């Protein structure tokens, strides 16, 4: 191959238009409609043709058109207004400085395998990436010192198209980074920033790119450079493709390489947030850094590292959690063991639920959990499910106390709200509503919006969805080679006046994309009703290796053709953020029917709700918190079934019943002016309940309060003074673990308050009255442990049918002074508790470790219950 010299050609913008480059290279435009209108004004057809990518637009527009705009006073005035808006946004003081202002939070680094910012940056696949994108946009709006870290995939996620039989096909399209809103990171001398990682087959280098997202930056690693071998160059080729070996190579690049990239650009994060387990290797890199720089042992560095790490677990589905065989982990991380001064067995144990099980696969979520002090699920139900799933990591700890919290997801409102609804909100909620979207009283003003004014923009969005659907279907048919005479029906698909249901998500089996098709005749009757028509728009991708998911898509295509309802059912190929916006803005009902409790959270229904759609969903994920009878519908009542086929039968019938008896009649009951006023009332109820609660402003503030601020304070506390507190905590941990087997609960005495010895309660049942008090004494054999190093607790609460305590609460017992009758290594601990509720109650005594620097008592993995022998 000849020696090739490369160079980059930039658009030649006339001087009056130079700020267009500034606007195009900051993703602020993608959630600010004024900027979108500005780019569209340059050339609306070219804007669409460039995939709504302003950088590509500026490099494609004719020079004559640019010169013409440079003389257009109206355009220049609008350009100046948009430029001033962005500059003012970047320089202004935000919520973080006004409300938080702590010096402890210097930099939060948010690591994710995917980021969904806009469809012109195809480095996302679905909900996980969309959430990550919304997270960074909100960090920008709140002026939080955050950076994102990910990979810049050359081919992104696959492009979906269906063959004539309806079977999903995948195509991978290479991205042109130089015509995208990404820029190369450079050092002070103007050289590209490049990091390197040692892989088994040699050194792999990656250059660092960045994306401006308002006030924050997203840094992305790209291994497709000339210095690398062909095998190394494909590490960042595409998202979620390849085998296990490619996945571990990518995740090393994300976690280890991502942290090195931040160091290379001069960023030293106090808090690292792992969005799912893909980035868990960053914890090992943080440990390595501390050991190298601070003269620390592995366990000392581990204590410090955990304090500054946050881990969000997303999926309860086994296939969604990466796990690797032992030989692969040893191949790629074995050399790290000598640097960390641990054995391969110790390394492998970090990723196993049972560290001693040599047959267990190495699980990335387990590694992330073990290397983090702060962990959360993405809805209240998902928090409960996650505590159940990962409870084996904390043996003997009650499920309710497993240290996995929850923060329910939200959506970035300005990114998903239609232009028409945005105008309506400004008129009735006030122009400042975007500054406090989590303020519930503001949203009560939705009731003051006249019904016709809310219905009109919603209907316009539906017309927009239908026009988009017809255009997309026609293009799909032409690509498949459909006869020209058959293309006409695409112009008649869907009816602007019909009740429109939307279903769009990843086609995994548990999401049950074909549940609505289970009783064909009943569904056809619903769809074919000429007086009260119903139509459905489907979209979504199956994973390239998920044949079962692909079959679900195929069934939808065949159903529409077989039963001649092609004008009532549309499947939109290549589901992306653009398709999603049309759908959540244009449908009347958003359908979501996963098998409970498999949906971690889900956010598409939130996006639909803020645009006026009503949710119809199983009680799973966020809908357990979002459902109100006056604002949506539930499928079933949250029941669990062992027979999945029976569950599908029951819940599909529930959907048909709701459609026939409630939803369709409500939609088509019109007043004299042809408005569905009862339906609009539900729209208002849904919007004013869901929108202020399920947005990323509320979500992000929860992350700040629960995790980011405590983690930053803890990291700084443990690492200051040459990590003295981390070293002390590590030594204490080792000592408490070595001495734990000498601990024992020798005696427990429970008496009615104020009585003498005849009031002693035995282990068998005894009846008490509400208001009675119990004195509890426990004699503890301490062995080599000091009283201040443990917490002796009463664990009390109602008994369940299995004889265990449910919804338990703890009371800390007080250590008494020693007496002449008490041996030196034994102490009495006492507490008084009051019986406040009737019913069968239970209490038990337990001992847990206690140290001022522990984030929770379960970190050392030690607990001793009454009648147990300490282990």
Summarize the structure.
This protein is of the alpha/beta class and 871 residues long. The chain has 28 helices and 28 strands.
Give a structural overview.
- With 871 residues, this protein is α/β, with parallel strands linked by helices.
- The protein has 4 domains: 77 residues, no CATH class; 300 residues, Glycogen Phosphorylase B (Rossmann fold, 3-Layer(aba) Sandwich); 230 residues, Rossmann fold (3-Layer(aba) Sandwich), CATH 3.40.50; 123 residues, Coagulation Factor XIII, Chain A, domain 1 (Distorted Sandwich), CATH 2.70.50.
- 39% of the residues lie in helices and 17% in strands.
- Helix 2 packs antiparallel against helix 6, helix 10 packs across helix 11 and helix 20 crosses helix 23.
Question: Topology, please?
Answer:
Elements lengths: L18 H6 L8 H10 L1 H6 L4 H7 L2 H8 L2 H19 L3 H6 L7 E4 L15 H15 L4 E6 L7 E4 L5 E4 L11 E2 L9 E6 L2 E12 L2 E7 L7 H4 L10 H21 L6 E5 L5 H14 L3 H10 L1 E4 L10 E2 L1 H15 L3 H6 L12 E2 H7 L3 E4 L2 H10 L15 E2 L6 H4 L2 H11 L10 H4 L7 H30 L18 E6 L15 H8 L6 E6 L7 H16 L6 E4 L4 H10 L2 E4 L11 H7 L3 E5 L4 H4 L5 E4 L8 H25 L8 H14 L5 H44 L4 E9 L20 E9 L8 E9 L10 E4 L1 E2 L10 E9 L6 E9 L14 E2 L6
Parallel strand pairs: 1-2, 1-9, 2-8, 9-10, 10-13, 13-14, 15-16, 15-18, 16-17, 18-19, 19-20
Antiparallel strand pairs: 3-4, 5-7, 6-7, 7-8, 11-12, 21-22, 22-26, 23-24, 23-27, 25-26, 27-28
Helix pairs in contact: 2-6, 10-11, 11-12, 12-28, 20-23, 23-24
Q: What is the number of helices? A: 28
In CATH, the homologous superfamily of the largest domain goes by the name Glycogen Phosphorylase B
Q: Mean pLDDT across all residues, rounded?
A: 93
E-strand count: 28
């Amino acid at each position: 191959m000849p020696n090739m010299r490369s160079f980059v050609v930039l658009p030649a913008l006339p001087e009056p238009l130079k700020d267009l480059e500034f606007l195009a290279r900051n993703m602020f435009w993608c959630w600010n409609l004024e900027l979108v209108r500005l780019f569209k004004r340059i050339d609306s057809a070219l804007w669409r043709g460039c995939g709504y990518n302003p950088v590509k637009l500026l490099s494609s527009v004719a020079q004559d058109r640019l010169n013409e705009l440079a003389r257009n006073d109206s355009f220049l005035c609008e350009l100046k207004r948009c430029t001033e808006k962005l500059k003012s946004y970047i320089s202004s003081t935000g919520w973080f400085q006004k409300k938080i202002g702590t010096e402890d939070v210097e930099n939060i680094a948010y690591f994710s395998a995917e980021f969904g910012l806009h469809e012109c940056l195809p480095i996302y696949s679905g909900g996980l990436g969309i959430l990550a994108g919304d997270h960074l946009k909100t960090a920008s709006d709140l002026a939080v010192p955050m950076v994102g870290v990910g990979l810049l995939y050359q081919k992104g996620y696959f492009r979906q198209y269906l063959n004539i039989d309806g079977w999903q096909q995948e195509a991978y399209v290479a991205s042109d980074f130089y015509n995208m809103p990404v820029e190369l990171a450079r050092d002070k001398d103007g050289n590209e920033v490049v990091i390197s990682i040692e892989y088994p087959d040699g050194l792999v280098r990656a250059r660092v790119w960045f994306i401006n997202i308002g006030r924050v930056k997203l840094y992305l690693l790209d291994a497709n450079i000339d210095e690398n071998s062909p095998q190394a160059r494909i590490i960042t080729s595409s998202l979620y493709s390849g085998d296990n070996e490619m996945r571990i190579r990518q995740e090393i690049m994300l976690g280890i390489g991502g942290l090195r990239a931040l160091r290379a650009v001069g960023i030293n994060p106090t808090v690292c947030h792992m969005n799912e387990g893909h980035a868990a290797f960053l914890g090992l890199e943080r440990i390595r850094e501390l050991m190298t720089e601070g003269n620390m042992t592995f366990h000392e560095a581990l204590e410090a590292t955990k304090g500054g790490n946050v881990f969000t677990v997303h999926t309860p589905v086994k296939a969604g959690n990466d796990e690797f065989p032992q030989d692969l982990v040893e191949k790629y991380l074995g050399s790290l063991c000598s640097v960390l001064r641990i054995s391969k067995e110790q390394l492998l144990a970090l990723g196993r639920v049972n560290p001693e099980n040599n047959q267990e696969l190495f699980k990335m979520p387990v590694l992330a959990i073990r290397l983090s002090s702060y962990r959360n699920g993405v809805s209240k139900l998902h928090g409960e499910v996650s505590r159940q799933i990962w409870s084996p990591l904390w043996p003997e700890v009650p499920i309710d106390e497993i240290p996995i919290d929850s923060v329910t997801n939200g959506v970035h409102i300005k990114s998903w709200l239609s232009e028409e609804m945005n105008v309506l909100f400004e008129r009735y909620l006030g122009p400042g509503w975007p500054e406090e979207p989590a303020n519930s009283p503001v949203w009560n003003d939705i009731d003051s919006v006249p019904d016709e004014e809310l219905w009109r923009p919603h209907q316009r969005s539906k017309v927009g969805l239908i026009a988009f659907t017809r255009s997309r279907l026609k293009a799909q048919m032409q690509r498949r080679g459909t006869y020209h005479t058959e293309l006409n029906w695409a112009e008649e698909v869907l009816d602007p006046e019909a009740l429109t249901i939307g279903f769009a998500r990843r086609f995994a089996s548990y999401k049950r994309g074909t549940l609505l098709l289970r009783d064909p005749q009943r569904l056809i009757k619903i769809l074919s009703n000429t007086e009260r028509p119903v139509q459905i728009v489907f979209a979504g991708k199956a994973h390239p290796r998920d044949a079962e998911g692909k079959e679900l898509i195929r069934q939808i295509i065949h159903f529409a053709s077989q039963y001649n309802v092609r004008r009532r059912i549309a499947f939109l190929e290549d589901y992306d953020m653009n398709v999603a916006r049309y759908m959540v803005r244009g449908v009347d009902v958003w359908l979501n029917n996963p098998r409970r409790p498999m949906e971690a959270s889900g956010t598409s229904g939130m996006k639909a709700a803020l645009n006026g759609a009503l949710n119809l969903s199983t009680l799973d994920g966020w809908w357990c918190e979002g459902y109100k009878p006056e604002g949506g519908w539930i499928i079933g009542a949250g029941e669990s079934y062992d027979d999945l086929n029976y569950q599908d039968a029951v819940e599909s019938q529930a959907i048909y019943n709701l459609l026939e008896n409630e939803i369709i009649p409500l939609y088509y009951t019109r007043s004299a002016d042809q408005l569905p006023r009862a339906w609009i009332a539900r729209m208002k109820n849904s919007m004013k309940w869901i929108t202020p609660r399920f947005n990323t402003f509320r979500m992000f503030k929860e992350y700040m309060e629960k995790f980011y601020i405590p983690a930053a304070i803890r990291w700084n506390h443990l690492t200051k003074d040459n990590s003295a507190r981390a070293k002390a905590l590590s030594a204490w941990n080792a000592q408490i673990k070595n001495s734990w087997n000498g601990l024992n609960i020798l005696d427990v005495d429970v008496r009615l308050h104020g009585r003498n010895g005849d009031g002693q309660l035995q282990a068998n049942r005894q009846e008490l009255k509400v208001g009675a008090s119990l004195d509890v004494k426990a004699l503890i054999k301490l062995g080599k442990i000091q009283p201040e190093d443990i917490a002796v607790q009463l664990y009390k609460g109602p008994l369940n049918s299995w004889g265990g305590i449910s919804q338990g609460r703890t009371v800390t017992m007080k250590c008494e002074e020693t007496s002449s009758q008490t041996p030196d290594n034994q102490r009495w601990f006492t507490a008084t508790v009051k019986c406040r509720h009737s019913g069968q109650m239970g209490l038990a005594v337990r001992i847990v470790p206690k140290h001022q620097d522990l984030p929770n008592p379960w970190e050392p993995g030690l607990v001793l219950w009454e009648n147990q022998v300490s282990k």
